[in-house]
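Materials and Methods. Structural model of Short-chain dehydrogenase. The 349-residue sequence of Short-chain dehydrogenase from Sporothrix bragantina was retrieved and submitted for structure prediction as follows.
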Amino acid sequence: MSGPIETPDLTKLAQPAHVSETSDSIAAALHDHMVGKTVIITGVSPTGLGAEAARIVAKHSPKLLILASRSPAKIADVIADLKAAEGFDASVTTIESLTVDLASQESIRAAVASLNEKDPDFALDVLINNAGIMMLPEFETVPDAAGQPLEKQFGTNHIGPFLFTNLLVPALRRSKAPGGARVASVSSGGYQGSPVKALDDPLILRDTPETRAAYDSFQAYAQSKTGTLLMTLALAKKLAGKGVFAYSIDPGAVGSTNLSRSVPMDVQKALGWRLPDGTLNPVAPFITAEQSVASYVKAAYDPSLADKSGATITAAAVDESILDYAKDPVLAEKLWALSEEIVGEKFDY
Ligand SMILES: NC(=O)c1ccc[n+]([C@@H]2O[C@H](COP(=O)([O-])OP(=O)(O)OC[C@H]3O[C@@H](n4cnc5c(N)ncnc54)[C@H](OP(=O)(O)O)[C@@H]3O)[C@@H](O)[C@H]2O)c1
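The predicted structure was written out as tokens:
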């Protein structure tokens, strides 16, 4: 079993050098590919990247936009803002909320079942897996399919989206969108902090005195986000030629969201994210939500990526610098098999 690693200074991890595009600039160019689609975005709360993704998708006339998150009141706030936005046309676009806790396999299964019950022919054009949590200070768990405890960041950031996505694949395959359906899954530059160590030792995900002692909050986050990259790789391969394309997104560092809520203020100051008075450090390499979500729009809609399924989009461009452990097809298959075990269901296409 591996020991704890030192939490790296996130501000020193590779960040997009310069993001000149914004969600609006990319969407303006891709408008024709955005209109009339059915889209699900997970993890939607005011101030988060999911809300910015919802804003830009809603602005470009989807047919149906489903905001899937765990806090109904927060989704309702975002929907109210979207409907109040200039140009929103309720006769063109329907916006719905879907309550789903991605840390709970039961909740995920119930949420997808509710979509299929409402419309047995439900067809999905774009799935944006955005929800995530970061650096829980203590080792916490969520139940796996057998009710056994599983480390929570892995459970929420990798296993939740793995199950949600796979249960939605039949709907994605029913998409009639020209150019096919897309799955865009949000990883993090933080993936550079760790491979999926659980592939060597699945026991590190389990609740034992040793794992609690060895727990490193950043390593656990990094492992889960490498999981996102490997899931995309496997998904792209399994769905090649079947009308569904998969991409990962590195959103860059956006200080204005709520992601750092689990990171104690003194740690955030020590890492240089915040100034001594608690405000965001202006010299940290933060970008705006609009710059960040440019990559979401590209991954979800840009037809020029059709031959790049499996790729990661960073700073609105294909990222050619992904580390080997996050683009290895053998590791991707291994993680797929481990994930199937954890959700108690096999998915092959
Ligand atoms: N901000 C950054 O610098 C940055 C950098 C790298 C990667 N990312 C990634 O970008 C994505 C969005 O993060 P953000 O910065 O916008 O953070 P955020 O403001 O904390 O938003 C995260 C969203 O995920 C939702 N969520 C968390 N756990 C969930 C669960 N179990 N089930 C359903 N929804 C859940 C949250 O809902 P509640 O509000 O109800 O908790 C919230 O809507 C995450 O995947 C994150 O890892 C962000």
